[in-house]
Amino acid sequence: MTDQGSDTKAQAGEPGGAAGLEDHATFAHVDDGFQRLWTPHRMAYIIGEKPGDEAGAGCPFCTAPDKPDDEGLIVHRGTHCYVVMNLFPYNPGHLLICPYRHVSLYVDLTDEETVEFTRLTKAAIRALEAASGPHGFNLGMNQGAVAGAGVAAHLHQHVVPRWGGDSNFLPIVGQTKALPVLLEDTRQRVVAAWPAD
Known about the structure:
This protein is α+β, with helices and mostly antiparallel strands. The chain has a single domain, classed as HIT family, subunit A (2-Layer Sandwich). It has seven helices and five strands, in the order ααααβββαββαα. It has helices spanning 3-12, 43-47, 60-63, 69-72, 111-132, 169-173, 183-193; strands at residues 74-77, 81-85, 95-99, 136-140, 157-162. Strands 1-2-3-5-4 form a five-stranded antiparallel β-sheet. The N and C termini lie far apart (73 Å).
């Protein structure tokens, strides 16, 4: 190598250079034509501890209301139910309507809880319409693990905003969802757009 090459190597931080690190442009570089979307935060969901069936510390929907709104991702607190951001959203603005009480089935709600559960679902849709103008919504409850509920023991309803073209090859083929906005930024927008009672 020439002196000029050695200087370049040192400036780039390659082994033997000043920093002792490989140059980021050449480190394990293989041009295969693919772009990478790194989503390491998803590993918490994939390999993380799964919630149990008991109320209390093991249930994320029991513990969220005990935290400050920003830490618990709370959007709105009602008397019997509350609204929280989904930590692993399908789309930006994916909200969950939850009763405070630890019940697993919709039919287990009291009449008062049912009324507020429905009212908060409607308010969530209005807030999302004002905050981000989605083209449509998916609403749904997965009752029981066999139906796809990630937290089967604590009832929650999904309110997922949808836009034309929001489903493409990433979630369908790559099982990866690109989310262009941070959870807290989305939470603040929805809170600001939440309709007055």
